[in-house]
Here is the input.
Amino acid sequence: MRPLHYVNTSELPIVTNVKEMVVCDTLFNVLLVFILLFMAGSLKLYSTGNL
Here is the structure.
């Protein structure tokens, strides 16, 4: 019983860290997509403005 309890308590922080990492990754990906879209839009406006 003691090793099982030890495994359960040691796994909990790892799970929370993974959850936080996943949340940070998704937020970072969304931010990256928005930046790329903004850059693409500004480039399109810039090229059409030049033409």
Remarks:
- Residues 2-50 form the longest helix (49 residues).
